[in-house]
Amino acid sequence: MDYYYSLISPPCQSAILVAKKLGITLNLKKTNVHDPVERDALTKLNPQHTIPTLVDNGHVVWESYAIVTYLVEVYGKDDTLYPKDPKVRSVVNQRLFFDIGTLYKQIIDIIHLVVKKEQPTDEQMEKLKKAMDLLEHFLTERSYAAADHLTVADICLLGSVTALNWLKYDLEPFPHIKGWVARVTGEIPDYAEFRKDVEEATKAYVASKK
Questions:
Q1: What's the order of all strands across the beta sheet hosting 27-30?
Q2: Cβ contact 7:13 at 8 Å
Q3: 10-residue block means of pLDDT along the chain (210 residues)?
Q4: Are 184 and 149 in contact (CB under 8 A)?
Q5: How many CB atoms lie within 10 A of CB 8?
Q6: Both 172 and 130 in a single domain?
Q7: Which of 83, 123, 147, 195 is the most exposed place for a label (fewest CB within 10 A)?
Q8: d(Cα 25, Cα 56) in Å, to the nearest integer?
Q9: Residues with catalytic function
Q10: What's the total number of domains in the chain?
C-alpha cells in the first residue's frame, strides 16, 4: 500500500500508528503538496491533492479518518479499534468529529500563527483550553477516549494532543489527559522511535522557516 504523507502532520501520523497497531506495512511516500510536481502527481490520484492519501491495490482513499477506519475494517483481525456495535461506534465517531471540528482545529489554527511568528489571541487560547477541558472530561468517564479499550479515536486524538509540543503547551492542568497519553503510547509498537522521527522532522521544518 502506498501512503502519501508528511510526518509533521498529525492527521498523517494517525494512519501510520494505526498500521503499526494492526501489524501492516505502508509504503511511505513523503509528499510536499506545495511542490508543483509532487502536487500534480498526487492530483492524478486524489483530485483534492491532499495528504494523507492511501492507495491500496488501486483503491484510493483520502482524509485521515476515512483511511484509519478503512485500514481497520479491511485488515483488522477484529473490530476492537473500530467497534461494530452501533452504540460504541457512535461514541468513537463522535470523538473523531470532536477532534477534527474542535480540538485539532483550535490547535492547528494556533500552530499556523506560531510558525508565522504571530501570537494567538486570548480568545483562541481560551477556545483551546475549552477543547482540552472537554477531552479531560471525556477521560474522567473512562480510561480511553471512546471505549474501555484503545480505538482509532484515541490514536487520532493522540496526534492532536502531541502536536501541542509545537506550542510548549502545559499539560499539568490535565492529569487525565497526561495519563491517557502514557497509556495510549504504551500500546503502540515502536512509538518512542516514531515520536523521535516526528520531533526531528518538526525541528527541520521550523528551521526551514527561519
A1: 27-30, 2-5, 53-56, 59-62
A2: yes
A3: 96 97 97 93 96 97 98 97 98 98 95 89 96 98 97 98 92 97 97 95 82
A4: no
A5: 19
A6: yes
A7: 123
A8: 11
A9: 9
A10: 2
Strands (DSSP E) along the chain, which ranges?
2-5, 27-30, 53-56, 59-62
Residue 68 shares a structural domain with residue 147: no
Is residue 199 included in any domain, yes or no?
Answer: no
Task: Tell me the residue range of the domain where 38 lies.
Answer: 2-76
56 and 96 fall within a common domain: no
**138, burial (CB in 10 Å: exposed 0-12, middle 13-18, buried 19+):** buried
Residue 152 burial by CB count (10 A; 0-12/13-18/19+): exposed, middle or buried? buried
Q: What is the CA radius of gyration of the chain?
A: 17
Extract the C-alpha cell encoding 31. 509528499
